[in-house]
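Morning!

This is the sequence you dropped in the shared folder:
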Amino acid sequence: MSEENNNPAAGISQDAPAGAVLQVLAQYVKDLSFENPNAPDSLRVGDGQQNISVNANVNVQQLNETEYEVGLAFKIETKRGDDVSFLVELTYCGVFRVENIPQDSLHPVLLIEAPRQLFPFARRVLADATRDGGYPPLLLDPIDFVDLYRRNMEARGGQSEQAPAGDEKPN
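The structure's back. Tokens below.
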């Protein structure tokens, strides 16, 4: 395996200095809510297809000169007909130390690579919450954060923000 494949920011910027650092200092559930308003009726296997709506956002907040909180916020609602089966909301965050990354690469590193590192853990929390709510575990498909970033950049007219602070929305 090449050294480039081990670099979490590989492919984002070829101009990044050799000492570029993206380090996870902490990760945590900031907010979790699970509502099961029609239980136990909603737990019965019934007629009709479950309709699932998934909304996800990426939020970045600068904490100090080198540390950023990156949050993945999910809102997932499942309905059978007009009846809500369950509603789950999760904000899963990580604190990242960023050093020696050029300013023009900082935005994509925080909105692509950091969420990519958090996603598997957030996915597990959502799967556990739905399973604990009496449903089969909800296993979200991976999110293509590169495509998400590109679509949001196009929507902004290709202009990147100097200081990462925006929302990125896949759905």
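Headline: The radius of gyration is 18 Å.

More detail when I'm at my desk.
O.
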